[in-house]
Amino acid sequence: MRAICLALAGTLLAVPETAAARSWPETAGWTVFEGDDHCGVTMEYEGKGSSELSVGVNVDGGVIALLTNTGWSTSETESYEISWVLGDREYTGTSKGFGKSYEMRKGFGGKFGPEFLDDFAKASSLHVYRGEMLIDQLSLSGSGAATAMARRCLQTIKTRLAAEEKERQRFSHIADDPFAGGPTAEESAKRAGEPPRPLNLSSWGQMSDYPARAMREEREGTAHYLLTVSAAGRVTDCRVTKSSGHADLDAETCAVVLRRARFEPGGVEGQYEGEMKWALPR
């Protein structure tokens, strides 16, 4: 399996192409590659040390350019001040050394914004400098067509990731294994003196619960309550300990909590104190 000397999230290193990745056609002399969350293009050049240039883009738009050569002695522990000149655009900054052997190559890579890829696609050549010293000059013939293919590749990844996320969200409210991670006897004993832990606190009170008459009369208030929670995490009793000042708001507070509140099973019965704030939107 061929390795692409490029990592678009985190440190630079040689990573194998994903086994399940699609095979993209060579475009204008450039090899197009696909990873789990990135796509890019690479080209090997004749000349001193047979330089190889790889440029990739991540799904978040970040770009990495990596240049390697069989004759260089860069180190992964070093950073280098490198200027990448694409036509009339210059990108100068710190590039991370790539010192591990990759097909007998070493080199460096820099991280850039999306505009780098735009300039790479339009430029006819790349000149790379370390200070005033010319490191390499490379033709970018065909980079526009190759970049367009890489962007097609990236769009397929985005579509796949969006579909996977949508599928995850369908079942995100269901535990992967409801029988895993429950308290052991020792944990239950340690938590005997702790209050129960709510699981869905943010969903207890909703505007649709507001008593209609209280809403018409613009009555507001905060009701404090004390809950009794079973060892299984179910609310078995609710008592208002401090009134909101309105009987209907107090009554609805306990009705809502008894209907919706869920707690982490604790192995023992416990009590939980909280409050329900009834406020109209302004």
Model description:
The protein is of the alpha+beta class and 282 residues long. It has helices at 114-122, 143-170, 185-190, 212-216, 247-260, and strands spanning 3-4, 15-16, 31-34, 38-44, 52-58, 63-69, 79-86, 89-102, 105-112, 125-130, 133-139, 221-229, 235-242, 270-278. The strands form three sheets. The protein has a nine-stranded antiparallel beta sheet with strand order 3-4-5-6-9-8-7-10-11. The protein has a three-stranded antiparallel beta sheet with strand order 13-12-14, covered by helices on one side. α1 packs antiparallel against α2. The protein is elongated. The protein starts with a strand and ends with a strand.
Describe the protein's topology.
Blueprint: E1 3-4, E2 15-16, E3 31-34, E4 38-44, E5 52-58, E6 63-69, E7 79-86, E8 89-102, E9 105-112, H1 114-122, E10 125-130, E11 133-139, H2 143-170, H3 185-190, H4 212-216, E12 221-229, E13 235-242, H5 247-260, E14 270-278
Antiparallel strand pairs: 1-2, 3-4, 4-5, 5-6, 6-9, 7-8, 7-10, 8-9, 10-11, 12-13, 12-14
Helix/strand-derived category reads alpha+beta
Strand fraction: 25-35%
The coarse silhouette is elongated
| Strands in their spatial order, largest beta sheet | 3-4-5-6-9-8-7-10-11
Mean pLDDT reading: 86
Rg on CA atoms, Å: 30 Å
**Tally of separate helices:** 5
Low-confidence stretches at least 5 residues in length (pLDDT < 50)? 1-20
Q: Topology as H/E string?
A: EEEEEEEEEHEEHHHEEHE
Main sheet record:
9 strands, antiparallel
Helix content: 10-25%
Span of the ends, CA to CA: 62 Å
The number of distinct β-strands equals 14
